[in-house]
């Protein structure tokens, strides 16, 4: 039975039964053997367990996790520069818009019909 203390909510639970905290769902690794040195932010945990810096470091870490500030680094992807529209070649002639010929024909047909009605 490996009893684990949850750093997020403070509950103690059996690591062999639940890998994650049953109250808050946080993952807490069981304590390692005393032969390996655990380092947090460059401090050896075993040598500085009772120091002021050690306790303050862990208090700050808990607060940052609760608030949501402790997140993995996200690199900002550089977005490509917006492209300017390419200018069209000017040949001196104005390009006709599609459908202008149909409009002109329709206007002429209407005018011709009006002239026939006036002449009658």
Summarize the structure.
The chain is of the alpha+beta class. The protein has helices at about 50-65, 100-120; strands at about 5, 10-15, 40, 45.
Descriptive notes:
It comes from Dysosmobacter acutus. Keywords: Membrane, Transmembrane, Transmembrane helix. This is Hydrogenase maturation nickel metallochaperone HypA. By secondary structure, this protein is α+β, with helices and mostly antiparallel strands. Among the domains are: about 1-30, no CATH class; about 40-70, no CATH class. Helix content is about 30%, strand content about 10%. It is built from two helices and four strands, in the order E-E-E-E-H-H. It has a two-stranded antiparallel sheet. The longest helix has 20 residues, at about 100-120. The model has no long low-confidence stretch (mean pLDDT about 75).
Which descriptor suits the 3D outline? rod-shaped
Task: Identify the strand order in the major beta sheet.
Answer: 1-2
User: What is the first-to-last residue Cα distance?
Assistant: 111 Å
User: What's the helical proportion of residues?
Assistant: 25-40%
Low-confidence stretches: none
Q: Helical region count?
A: 2
Strand content: 5-15%
- Gyration radius, in Å: 39 Å
- Biggest sheet overview: 2 strands, antiparallel
Helices and strands, in order, run as EEEEHH
Question: Structural class of the helix and strand makeup?
Answer: alpha+beta
Tell how many strands the DSSP assignment holds.
4
Mean pLDDT: 76
């Amino acid at each position: 039975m490996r009893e684990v203390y949850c750093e997020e909510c403070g509950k103690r639970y059996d690591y062999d039964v639940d890998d994650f905290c049953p109250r808050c769902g946080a993952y807490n690794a069981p304590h390692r053997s005393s032969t390996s040195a655990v380092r947090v932010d460059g401090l050896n945990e075993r040598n500085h367990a009772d120091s002021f810096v050690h306790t303050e470091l862990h208090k700050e870490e808990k607060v940052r996790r609760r608030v949501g500030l402790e997140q993995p680094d996200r690199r900002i992807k550089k977005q490509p520069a917006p492209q300017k529209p390419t200018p069209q070649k000017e040949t001196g002639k104005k390009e006709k818009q599609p459908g202008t010929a149909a409009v002109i024909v329709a206007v002429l047909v209407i005018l011709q019909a009006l002239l026939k009605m006036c002449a009658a």
